[in-house]
Amino acid sequence: MIKLDRGLCPDELNEDVVEELTKLYKEDKEKDVWNSPKIKETLKKALTDMSHNKCAYCECILDIESKDVTIDHFLPKSNNESLVIAWTNLLPSCLRCNRKKNRKEDVIINPCEINPKEHLGIKNNGVRLKAINNSQIGKNTISVVGLNDIDRVMKPRMVVVEKLIDEFEELYEDIIEFDNIPNRYINRCEKYMSEALRDKEYSAVVSAKLLDDATFRAIKQIFIDKNLWNYQLQEIEKELIEIALPII
What we know:
Blueprint: H1 15-27, H2 40-50, E1 70-73, E2 90-93, H3 95-101, E3 120-122, E4 129-131, H4 136-144, H5 150-175, H6 183-194, H7 203-211, H8 214-225, H9 231-243
Helix pairs in contact: 5-6, 5-7, 5-8, 6-9, 7-9
């Protein structure tokens, strides 16, 4: 889970449309007014652009297999009718997270308003999330949307982490042969680091595990010693630090 910037409300979701669709919902709670043809495609695009085409909660990539884009009402629409189509109350979610959250009233992290890394960390021996300092909102978030669901979340996170760590181990074995490291290996390092950026799947965990990895740190030190830790690598590292959950 990473911090998201909500951005501007799409023009199609103007005051008149919000008023009209909110009225329709209040008259008939069975109407999925957020899927109205007037706004459906534009709204989903605006939300997925905001989240880098990922679920705002678990960070899976949307539109893959059964991970359809759904619109989650952060404050449940059942008790907040006036917010049923409010831009500030909508988040893109995979079907699994949306169903798990459902109408639960527990206070959880809204990634557009709270930086998740202030309340969520990663246990140092794996990819399991844990609340920082027993943060209640952190605990609620992990529980409500199942961020430690073994099959649907933890295993996929681990696959991505292990693949990236393997790539850096191969890179390390390649570069230790050289006194003067060819540019292609610098490019490989940049490419691999980019696989943990905010637009990639499970980036909050993947970036944290990469930055904490001994092989990655060894490669970085080699590049620094040889004046190869260039501007592009530094900028990628800055973003990784910004989004990485703390390891606790």
